[in-house]
Each structure stands twice: as structure tokens, then as C-alpha cells.
Amino acid sequence: MPTIVFLSSKGGSGKTTAALTLALGLARRAEPVAVIDADVNLPIHRWRGQASGPENLTVFPATTIPQMLHALEDARALAPWLIVDTEGSPRAWDQIGTLRPDLVIIPVGPSPLEAAEAIRTSRSLQDMAAFFDRPLPHACVFTRLPAAIRARSFTQVVQRLRAERIAIIATPLIEKEAFRAMFWNGGSLDTLDPAEVSGLASAQINADQYAADIIGLFSPGGPLAHASPAAVGWKQTVPPVQTAQAPASAPIGMTAAA
């Protein structure tokens, strides 16, 4: 089963929103999905407690390594997709070592400081991959991106990441009230009231495109097809989503030194 981990050492990076949005995108496609909430604040577990969300989305709270090991066993028996929201602290590296994920997603905001942190995270993942003698594919996703015209600094951020040959998920998550409202009100973008949440329709389109980009990486012919549910013996309930893959200038998990 694909194990997709969201990793950021910086609070407020959009990590949990990106993880939940992907999980909901999978559930919307009739795919059973398990989420391990390893963040010490348990934001997704609390969201699930107040939500009448999809029945095919199960959340396991696991803030310690022993809890995570138990959750892994249960999650992998339950669903063909596993999403993990790690803790936003150095303890997340212990969680990565336990999980050995198929894909690590690094949320990054449109600022040079966050780009520098993402580059450090990418280099640490490369070091960990060398230690374990197995690949740790990873990619950045832009979060909290303003819907208006991009600033010049954003172009510089993209250039810095590409110079390091870090993959970038094609669709960023735009700064939208609707993404925050999911946590305030529970449920998903589909269950929010458009009369109460502005920009809901555009947020739904944004979220669906973002999820499709990541799912497409595991589709036949995608760079991570070897880890798809079908490849590891799961019977898929719907045909794989065909989407554009990561930019050719930034292969998943590769760097200039590779």
C-alpha cells in the first residue's frame, strides 16, 4: 500500500491541511484510506471527532512510536492508502524511520525562508535514504499560496527548489477560507455550506486537482507505480486517475548529486 507522509519542522506550514485534503480526495474517489495522526496536537483526530465525514476514511491517533506500530498494523489491514501527518518537531524523523514511506511530501510556503527549510529537509531525507540503503522519494507542495498574482520572491523560491532538483507537486494549495473551515466545522469541502464559506467552489476544484496530481504518481506509468495498491496486491475500486506527473525538471526524490 502507498504510505504517504507529510513532513515539516515548521508550525503553520499547512502540513495538516495538505494531509487531510489528500485523504479526503482519496475517499471522494471511493478509495478506503487510513490516516495516522502522529502530530502531538492530534488535529485530524479532533477533526474526525466532530465530523460526519466519509465512512471510508479512518483516523488512528498515534503520538508515540509504540502507538504508531500498532496503528500501522491496523491501518495496513484496513485500507490500500495510508496518509501520515507527522509531528512538527525533530521527533518526526523517528516517525519517518519507523514508517519507511513510499513518498514524503514537504509543505512549503511562498517565502525564501521556507524554501531554505525545505531544502534542508530534502538533504536530510537523502542522508536517511543512504543510511537505510533504500530510496525515500520526496516532493514539495506549495501551501497557503495567494490566489492573486505571484510575487517575485515566489519565482525565486521555485528556482531554488529546482536548482536542488527537488520535485514540486504541480498543483499548489491556494490560501482559502474553506480549508480552514473544514477544521472549524468538521466534515469535508463537500459538506460545507457555500452560503457560509466564501470561495468554496474554487477550493473544491483546487483540492481535487491537488489530490489527482499525487494519486497520479502511483498510477500505471507514474514514477511511483511500483508502490500502487494494484502493484502490492490490493484490488482497486475505481480506475486510477490519469494526471500530469511531476515536472520533468524535478524527478521525484532525485537531486543534482544523485
Mean pLDDT across every amino acid position: 85
CATH topology: Rossmann fold
Percent of sequence in beta strands: 5-15%
Number of strands: 7
Tally of alpha and pi helices: 8
Would you list the SSEs in sequence order as H and E?
A: EHEHEHEHEHEHEHH
The SS-based structural class is alpha/beta
Fraction of residues in H or I helices:
40-55%
* Rg from alpha-carbon coordinates: 17 Å
- Given this structure, which CATH class is correct? Alpha Beta
The CATH architecture can be given as 3-Layer(aba) Sandwich
How is the largest sheet built, in terms of strand order?
A: 3-2-4-1-5-6-7
Strand and helix map with partners:
Elements: E1 3-6, H1 15-28, E2 33-37, H2 43-50, E3 57-61, H3 65-78, E4 81-85, H4 92-99, E5 103-108, H5 112-132, E6 138-142, H6 152-163, E7 167-168, H7 177-185, H8 200-217
Parallel strand pairs: 1-4, 1-5, 2-3, 2-4, 5-6, 6-7
Helix pairs in contact: 1-8, 2-7, 3-4, 5-6
Can you describe this structure?
The chain is α/β, with parallel strands linked by helices and 258 residues long. It has a single domain (3-227), classed as Rossmann fold (3-Layer(aba) Sandwich). The chain contains eight helices and seven strands, in the order E-H-E-H-E-H-E-H-E-H-E-H-E-H-H. The chain has a seven-stranded parallel β-sheet with strand order 3-2-4-1-5-6-7, with helices on both faces. Helix 5 (112-132) links the parallel strand 5 and strand 6.
